[in-house]
Amino acid sequence: MISRRTWVPLAAIGFAKTLRAQKELTVAGKKPLLVLNDFPEDLETPAEYFDRWITPNDVFFVRQHLPRPKMDPSSYRLEISGMVGSPVQLSLEELRKLPQTTVVATLECAGNGRSYYRPRMPGLPWSKGAIGNAEWRGPRISDLLKKAGGVASGAQYGTFDGADVGLAQTPDFIRSVPVRKLLHPATILALEMNGEPLPELHGFPARLVVPGWDGASWVKWVTKIVLSEKPDSGFYMATAYKYPRRLTPPGVPPRPEEMESIEGMAVKSFFTKPAREAKFKLGPVLLQGVAWAGEHRVLRVEVSVDGGASWRQARLSPQNLPFAWRLWSFEWTPRAPGYYLACVRATDSAGRTQPIEAPWNPSGYLWNSIERIGLLVEA
Ligand code: MTE
């Protein structure tokens, strides 16, 4: 049983078409999640599930532009072609026989937090939960490319196509990733997620894992990799998932030539507990949350309980891996009853700190404003 938000779905392109009533939806393999779209399912993870370092598969958010394909593991083939030494086709068995690498990495949709931007824009109205941290396992893309005789000189991009197919109003989902990122030892074709074969919703039998990059690069149900000089010219590279090189005032779209494909993600933190506008009796309160920094490391998380006038350092969980989020906690003992504005901000190893307000951009990507929540302390 899943509760549905009142304001709903947008296709990959286009504006909201309908306002639908509250509805419940059961999705195999998933606990109740927030439903942004019921077909194909787009599901958001409620913040209370982010109370642990690894996000379990049954609460991991789902984003799919097109109905997911039915995959048959016995006939599955991955085709690698284009600017490689010798094109190959690999079966699932052959992929499993290659050396397997484990990477813990946070996956976040570029549009996570879109619902907070003003003026609003088209696109799924995610709150905080289009994000999760999982352990991914599978062969390195660099090993797959070796199997195909290596990357020919001049090849700059690998273009990934999943088995999902385009529909009349929604183009086929195809994404390109620069070869420099594909050859990174942490970029893998995951066959497993949190120790299980990839769930169907998350790309069974094989998905691209591009640690530190936006979720759109993490192509699911991968069947084709084509090496070439240029990125794909389709919708998801030429138009979508782009961010302005120079910012414009809110509501003013930049010129298309000012837009660049998103690569690494922003530095970001948020509260997982307590909930916005929670009430407490006077006494110690534990504030908790997560923080991550795309391709960089989270160095520091600070909390303010006076609306950002003063800041104190939060405690970070011991895990300190590139590409994976960290949990933070802050013990707070309010001195007096009253209404408090709690804020959290992270700083990363590249010297980036969260802004007061994430810059408006036409598709509502990379939301990372300092989160502010009101808390009421009663006598
Ligand atoms: N891969 C395919 N083949 N089709 C898709 O629609 N959506 C992408 C990416 N990979 C997509 C895809 C987007 S936008 C995101 S945010 C992630 O998958 C979401 O991954 P998840 O559903 O496993 O959480």
Sum this structure up briefly:
By secondary structure, the chain is mostly beta strands. The chain is 6% helix and 33% strand.
Primary descriptors:
binds ligand MTE; mainly beta; Immunoglobulin-like; disordered N terminus; five-stranded mixed beta sheet; 379 residues; Sulfite Oxidase, Chain A, domain 2
What is the CATH architecture annotation of the largest domain?
Alpha-Beta Complex
Assess the beta-strand content as a share of residues.
25-35%
Overall average pLDDT: 94
What is the radius of gyration computed over CA atoms, rounded to a whole number of angstroms?
A: 21 Å
Number of helices: 4
The SSE order reads: EEEEHEEHEEHEEEEEHEEEEEEEEEEE
The domain count comes to 2
Largest beta-sheet details: 5 strands, mixed
Q: Strands of the biggest beta sheet: in what spatial order? A: 4-3-13-7-8
CATH class of the largest domain: Alpha Beta
CATH fold type of the largest domain: Sulfite Oxidase, Chain A, domain 2
